[in-house]
Design brief:
Rossmann fold, DNA-binding transcription factor activity (chains A, B), 346 residues, alpha/beta, transcription (chains A, B), DNA-binding (chains A, B), DNA-binding, homodimer, LacI family transcriptional regulator (chains A, B), 12 helices, elongated, 4-stranded parallel β-sheet, 3 domains, transcription cis-regulatory region binding (chains A, B), 434 Repressor (Amino-terminal Domain)
DNA sequence: GTGAAAGCGCTAACAC
DNA sequence: GTGTTAGCGCTTTCAC
């Protein structure tokens, strides 16, 4: 990127020594070099404004210091914290991170995976889409260092998982303990592991507390999410509220599959003059930071996003030490209930 | 990352040809190779499950396909769209992007800059902090390919700029045209070019429409933002509302320096029973996506974030063609007023 | 302690 | 059209 970079060869010449020695001092190899010579090298490097070219080193050592993170879309408010966690952990270990937005597009995702392989990244953290399971699996079996999260992978693999079912259970249980008996579930289509898990938790809680599962209260849109529309979940919430309001003997609570949906739900409710939480309690899922900035602040399930990102990167980089190791590690993260103002006793 | 990757040498052996030929067909050099041989090479490559090692090529050609984007914090809702724009443009041109969060920390920012240089990235898109102007300037003068945005740089440099003053003017003008005469300005300290510009626009509009500049209405916190607290602006909005409410003969409108602050302002106002927009009109700045999801949806100034990111990357990569070119390019983006429900005629 | 030299995987003269 | 070969910038044996 700069003009004509100085190389260790230039430094060697200037310091009247060999490239071997220069390399030894400049790469902090710990290899013994006489202090006086070392100083000469350092000075020469400074004089020449030397910037090491990592490409040379990496080609030789076959070890880059890059990892990639592949996510659906960084402008979905769920992902920035994760990516930040990844980056922080990576930086601590001297790694850089390549950002890849897949837009949930199978071809794009595969293209990125291939591209990252060519770049010799040391590993990949990925929230993949289910269609690519076979491809991913093959990569893993070929020895690629991969950590999956935010999805269900059907094959052995390092992963950071999250207990969606328990989260769904906690949310529903909270409403039940508040005295609610008719609790609606509002969601986009259950096309993802996360949504399925949350729904399962909802059912489980109802069963556990011996409440009827009423099909009428399960409002799941069958229209699939448009690609690249971060606002879809929100609009979906608004839309399904209309169906909700048509239910005779209106439920007193709503559990939305995620915060974006819940925010839409609250907005929709308000627009029809229905008060939250006075008329209807609402709980969300994810605890994206917006949820405490809306009115009323949203009761929701915390998913430790930053920590998950950090753990994913830490796990990934730690695995590098024992490359051949066939044992895969799974770290399971737990949900917590965050009670704010959108729910209240019946 | 995989075990023992096949190299062009292996392919040459298998296809009974030379590495030169293999390279020619595999790198799509356009160099003529007989069809039959080409097929043999392709087959061999496939059979060996060949993945090119970009490090080799890049070391040879001295051209990586990487760019870096350095921003304060990806979890600040202002940046994801920008980064997405950068990535999309980069991908279209065959580039990958390295993400660097500087946390507005001068040392970290410089460390990243250095680190990226070592990695031989082709260029850097940066929202820098003012303390590092000298360092940045030197990089630029050393021939580094840099595009700055979201800041005021005091030296010649490629940049994507945004007319904050005009934005501030538009927002204030909107309020004035609605009949408001007492318009408060609420902001975090004017330590950044953007905030300064917005404030200047506010003053300019008042002057232009011959309204008094009343110091009492200018509510600027002097507490500096805590590092790494994306919620600070929001809380700042809430806090300053208290001062706002103490103003005798309360103003009928508030212009907040950005959306996060505005959302805090609205929240604060509500908590004191003040209605928006019935009692007080509020306008924000930035048009982050949350602003249309709050109640009432926020009137604000649109900053074309995605486009700015995309343009920055396009500009950066285009500049690569004429490396030596000393002419720097500045692209100025214009604000637009987005009228929603948080403002109304007096 | 130090240096000569090989070589990581690739491209690009250059020769044929 | 094809092959030989030098070399990108670096690390690392190996010999001294």
């Amino acid at each position: 990127m700069a003009r004509k970079n100085a190389t260790i060869y230039d430094i060697a010449k200037l310091a009247k020594t060999s490239t071997a020695t220069v390399s030894r001092v400049l790469s902090n190899s710990g290899y013994p070099v006489k202090e006086e010579l070392r100083q000469r090298v350092l000075e020469a490097a400074k004089k020449l404004n030397y910037t090491p070219n990592l490409l040379g080193r990496q080609l030789k050592t076959k070890e880059t210091r890059d990892i990639a993170v592949i996510i659906p879309n960084i402008s979905n408010p769920f992902y920035p914290s994760i990516v930040l966690g990844v980056e922080d952990a990576a930086r601590e270990k001297g790694y850089n991170v390549l950002l890849c937005d897949s837009y949930r597009n199978p071809q794009l995702e595969i293209a990125y995976l291939n591209s990252m392989a060519k770049k010799q990244v040391r590993g990949i953290i990925i929230s993949s889409i289910s269609q690519n399971q076979r491809f991913l699996k093959e990569l893993v079996s070929r020895g690629f260092n991969i950590v999956a999260f935010d999805q269900n992978v059907t094959f052995p693999c390092n992963r950071i998982s999250f207990d969606y079912v328990k989260g769904g259970f906690l949310a529903t249980e909270h409403l039940i303990k508040l005295g609610h008996k008719k609790i609606a579930f509002i969601s986009a289509p259950l096309t993802r592991a996360s949504r399925k898990g949350v729904f399962e938790g909802y059912l489980k809680a109802l069963k556990h507390y011996k409440l009827d599962v009423n099909k009428e209260l399960i409002l799941i849109n069958d229209k699939e999410q448009e690609i690249n529309n971060e606002i879809y979940e929100y609009e979906n919430g608004i839309e399904l509220v209309k169906r909700f309001l048509k239910i005779k003997d209106m439920p007193t609570a709503i559990f939305a599959v995620n915060d974006m949906t819940a925010i839409g739900v609250i907005q929709g409710l308000k627009s029809f003059g229905v008060k939250v939480p006075d008329d209807v309690s609402v709980v969300g899922f994810d605890n994206i930071f917006i949820s405490e900035m809306i009115e009323p602040p949203l009761t929701t399930i915390e998913q430790p996003k930053y920590e998950m990102g950090k753990l994913a990167a830490t796990l990934l980089i730690d695995r590098l030490q024992n490359e051949g190791d066939k044992k895969y590690i799974e770290i399971n993260m737990s949900p917590t209930l965050i009670i704010r103002k959108s729910t209240k006793p019946l």
